[in-house]
Amino acid sequence: xxxxxxxxxxxxxxxxxxxxxxxxxxxxxxxxxxxxxxxxxxxxxxxxxxxxxxxxxxxxxxxxxxxxxxxxxxxxxxxxxxxxxxxxxxxxxxxxxxxxxxxxxxxxxxxxxxxxxxxxxxxxxxxxxxxxxxxxxxxxxxxxxxxxxxxxxxxxxxxxxxxxxxxxxxxxxxxxxxxxxxxxxxxxxxxxxxxxxxxxxxxxxxxxxxxxxxxxxxx
Length: 219
Known about the structure:
With 219 residues, the protein is an alpha+beta fold. 21% of the residues lie in helices and 37% in strands. It contains 3 helices and 13 strands. It is globular and about 55 Å long. The protein has one domain (2-208): Protein Transport Mog1p, Chain A. It has a 7-stranded antiparallel beta sheet with strand order 4-5-6-12-11-8-7, sandwiched between helices. The chain has a 4-stranded antiparallel beta sheet with strand order 1-2-3-13.
């Protein structure tokens, strides 16, 4: 199972690079985006675009492993990464500490190195902590992706456009047999405690095939 999942991660890597660079160079449309609502392949999950129905979107999936990004011309960015659960204990009747550790390991051992550091080796997690989402374990983090933002600036020496660094707040959580990461482009001054409020609206606009839609957030 782990080998199959790893193959899926590599297969999706080209499209998932849109989550890092977020440039409209090679969109892959395996899901559907109608009237501002994205439906993942197999209806694995749905996500309402926080940027409206005219947002650019990029997606890439290999079965139930993949990602989607929403982007507008101002450089605002929201994204979802999804994989099957990696740990055999995921979804079991664990205590809170075990569930939080499973989510942390999913981020550190799989998602961050495969989806982010593989494209930008100097990417780093700046701050992180366990928390709760809908009363269940979650993992909150802020990461920095050097020159990974959609926005660019003009370099004073070369006169050429240079991508700005990307700072993203993210929340990791599990629903049924899958683990999700949702994220948003935020300012470098972002405090870790601001991650959940910044992503609340995005999360509330999602539904999951493994579960029922949720409408209240708690931490």
